[in-house]
Design goal:
Layout lengths: L3 E2 L20 H5 L5 E2 L21 E2 L8 E3 L2 E16 L2 E8 L8 E4 L3 E8 L8 E3 L23 E7 L4 E6 L4 H6 L4 E6 L12 E10 L18 E4 L10 E4 L3 E8 L5 E5 L4 E6 L2 E2 L7 E2 L1 E4 L4 E7 L4 E7 L24 H8 L30 E4 L2 E5 L3 E7 L61
Parallel strand pairs: 3-13, 5-8, 7-12, 13-16, 15-26
Antiparallel strand pairs: 1-2, 4-5, 5-6, 8-10, 9-11, 11-12, 13-14, 16-22, 17-21, 17-23, 18-19, 18-20, 18-22, 23-26, 24-25
Bound molecules: copper (II) ion.
Length: 466
């Protein structure tokens, strides 16, 4: 494990916060579960439950699961709300707010019927609270600042306690200064596994989860613009953007579940290549079997969860992405005119005499952007990038790949490398000249033969000169 166990040491960026370690009462802290913090954005292996009821754990994409302490039959967790530095992809680090060293926070996994106690320490420069989205719980544990509890002031620790009453896929996020705190990356995943066999919840071989979140971070800067309403420029899976998102690596014919939550400000039609899936659950619970239908894209609206399931029965490297094409790009300016078809030849030399760095883009489409050696500001990702085995994938944002392999071992989540296509199963170039198109034969329409159409054009009259 790469996790760091430290009681009082503040993680990296926390120095920026106005909270000092001494403001945390060490006597009270001694009674709390230790703080476990993660210092890498890599996908961590599933956390096999060391105690309590057994279950098949999830794997959080570019994330991890929070360990707990079992005390008198209660699962105790400790979340710390704090400033974090999140690498969104190699070459770009964002200054976000999150939990226990990362954004999103760690995934919490429990079993239906578990009594759960969650300590929440606030190391942010402002107050916060945590809402347990989708849970059945006593009203006073719902975490709505001002409505069901006072907010948690900087330096303070609150405790939430409830029984995880229904199995399913949930999330947690602040319900205090939400616009700021969610735009800064504060959110996390929660999975309640069923107690024993559940008629509507299938056992699966692989169970993945991630949150959709979006940021507006100007090229060359590191802190999100928190007032942005709609025009975000980094669309991410768990605060990672392609090519920084890990691949889903599965074994041929594995039954796979992927749980997706959306805490951005718009909907995301999530699309999987290669196989069909069914939506088997939402944050409202498992979907009755008779109400499921096949899909290859499912729209995840704001504040929703969707749980999809399929059998990975086709080998290969299958794209998995949001179908909004601007959401598979990294930070860019959208206010540029379309230049397709505009001939810039000759103009460049003249402009370069005045503006040496000026570049023309888009006269053949935008694909050149992936190859362009345009100088980027520091801490800025190319708009479209990611190398595949056959060149640039020309993607960014909400894009990754599901790798289905015959040789992948059960329980092995490591990256098997690129797919080797069997001979004769890959699109290829054909040799030879392309012939001129042949006109499709025109058949007579019921009204008459082609050429029979008569059009009468009447010119306007009454004008001078006519
Ligand atoms: Cu999207």
């Amino acid at each position: 494990m790469t996790s760091r166990r430290d009681f009082f040491k503040l993680t990296g960026a926390v120095a920026a916060a106005s909270v000092s370690a001494t403001s945390i009462n060490s006597v009270a802290m001694a009674a709390l579960p230790e703080i476990v913090s993660m210092d890498t954005p890599d996908t961590q292996p599933p956390l096999t439950p060391p105690n309590g009821r057994p279950y098949n754990p999830v794997v959080t994409l570019n994330g991890w699961t929070l360990p707990w302490r079992m005390r008198d039959g209660v699962k105790e967790f400790h979340l710390v709300a704090e400033p974090v530095v999140r690498e969104m992809a190699p070459g770009m680090k964002a200054h976000l707010w999150g939990y226990n060293g990362q954004s999103p926070g760690p995934t919490i996994e429990v079993v239906e019927g578990d009594r759960v106690r969650i300590f929440v320490t606030n190391r942010l420069p402002e107050h916060t609270s945590i809402h347990w989205h989708g849970q059945r719980l006593p009203n006073g544990m719902d975490g709505v600042g001002g409505l069901t509890q006072p907010t948690i002031k900087p330096g303070k620790t609150y405790v939430y306690e409830f029984v995880a009453r229904r199995p399913g896929t949930f999330m947690y996020h602040p319900h205090a200064d939400e616009m700021t705190q969610m735009a800064m990356g504060m959110m996390g995943f929660w999975v309640t596994h069923p107690k024993g066999r559940h008629p509507l919840i299938n056992p699966v071989d692989r169970d993945f989860c991630f949150l959709l979140n979006a940021y507006d971070i100007d090229p060359g800067s590191a802190t999100p613009q928190i007032n942005t309403m709609l025009d975000f420029n980094l669309f991410s899976f768990n605060s990672r953007v392609f090519p920084g998102i890990d691949t889903f690596n599965v074994r041929l014919n594995d039954r796979v579940r992927i749980r997706i939550g959306n805490l951005t400000m718009t909907n995301h039609p999530i699309h999987l290549h290669g196989v069909e899936f069914e939506v088997t659950g939402t944050d409202g619970g498992p979907v009755p079997k008779a109400a499921r239908w096949p899909e290859v894209t499912t729209d995840v609206a704001v504040g929703q969860m969707r749980q999809i399931e399929f059998v990975a029965s086709e080998e290969g490297d299958w794209a998995f992405h949001c179908h909004k094409s601007h959401h598979t790009m990294n930070a860019m300016g959208h206010a540029v005119p379309t230049m397709i078809g505009v001939d810039h030849s000759g103009i460049m030399g003249k402009i370069n005499k005045l503006v040496p760095d000026y570049m023309v883009m888009g006269e053949r489409g935008m694909a050149d952007m992936a190859e362009m050696e345009m100088p980027l500001p520091d801490n800025t990702l190319p708009m479209m990038s990611g190398q595949g085995p056959f060149g640039s994938v020309e993607m960014g944002g909400m894009f990754t790949v599901m790798k289905v392999r015959r040789e992948q071992k059960r329980g092995d989540y490591s990256d098997p490398g690129w797919y080797k296509h069997p001979p004769g199963t890959q699109a290829r170039e054909v040799a030879g000249e392309v012939a001129e198109p042949v006109r499709a034969p025109q058949s007579a329409s019921p009204q008459g033969k082609p050429g029979d159409i008569e059009v009468t054009v009447r010119k306007p009259t009454g004008h001078a000169g006519h």
